[in-house]
Amino acid sequence: MIRLLVAALALALAQEQTEPARRFARAVELQRSGALKEAEAEYRALLAASPGHAEAQANLGAVLMRLDRYDEAVAAYEAALRLAPGLTPVLLNLGIAHYRKGEFDRAVAALKSFLERSPGNLQATQLAGLALVELGRDAEAAEYLRRAAAQAEDAGTLYALGLACLRLRSAELGGVIERLKHVAGGEAHAHLLGGLAHLDRSEFRDAVRELEVARALNHDLPRLHYSLGLGYLRLGRSAQALAS
Residue ranges per domain, the chain? Predict the structure, then answer.
């Protein structure tokens, strides 16, 4: 009888210990299949029973990110890091969440912490540079963006690098514009940067010419219409300025 009781107790303990693992596996399966609401519910149920489950907190953050609920995602990632500071990938995800919230200073802090542990990571290097551009910390941004562009040239990285160079009055700008012309989708960005450089030098006719080419290539570029409107205004073309 005693042996039977011990065996029953051992079985109950084993089932109790494996239940969080089963629930976690179920939540991961739902997450991978795209059933995000169901995955969220499963992770939250698991965390209610096992609040110290760091991986569940981290995965809950990823689910919330995909649902565009960035405040909650940040809270989940921060909770995961409190439970398990060694979960290095969570720092990258936290940086991305802050970036999407427009909290660029916090994004930079998280991404720098991640890069201390995973130096050379392209995504983190690129995103840190973009966040620093948004903060106007152009010299620092240029360092990150140069490293990112050395690993993989793309229009977004080179455009941000060019914008930083423009603000810094760096002679590097011309080279960045030339590089942009030779990457996919980069030609429009190259003309936009050229137009911005002409505006900066009060060369309004040249600025408008470059910006109109950029508009013809890609109507949706950031800063394009405002800059073109400013150029038109300086040339006395008020109707076109208002339209832009």
Answer: 29-101, 185-244
